[in-house]
Amino acid sequence: MSFQAYIDNIKAKTGKSPEDFKQLAENKGFMENGMLVQSVKATEITNWLKEEFELGHGHAMAIYATFKGKTS
Questions:
Q1: Count of CB atoms within 10 A of residue 30's CB?
Q2: Is the N or the C terminus of the chain less surrounded, counting Cβ atoms within 10 Å?
Q3: End-to-end CA distance of the chain
Q4: Which residues are paired to 32 by β-bridges?
Q5: Tens digit of pLDDT for each residue in 9-39?
Q6: Distance between CA 55 and CA 63 in Å, rounded?
């Protein structure tokens, strides 16, 4: 599955885009000014996405990758 397919599937399931998730991550304190907070671990973010949005591990990692700057 391509990276874009992961993003498309996440949007279909949750109704949220990567930008929406970035805003939610800012609200939770995982990001500041569009950048990941250095002390935040990938596991914290993926666990949040799995619990709150019922994403699988691969899909949660795709969102985490967008937080790190991946776009395609």
A1: 20
A2: C
A3: 12
A4: 35
A5: 999 999 999 999 999 999 999 999 989 999 9
A6: 10
What is the number of other CB atoms lying within 10 angstroms of the CB of residue 37? Answer: 13
Residue 50: both structure tokens together: 């799995």
Say which DSSP state 32 is in: E
Give the integer Cα–Cα distance in Å for 45 and 7.
16
The dihedral over CA atoms of 50, 68, 71, 54, expressed in degrees to the nearest 10, equals: 0
**Residues contacting residue 8 through CB under 8 Å, at least 6 positions apart:** none
Task: Please state the pTM of the whole predicted model.
Answer: 0.91
- How buried is residue 44: exposed, middle or buried, by Cβ count under 10 Å (0-12/13-18/19+)? middle
Tell me: pLDDT of 72 over 80. Answer: no
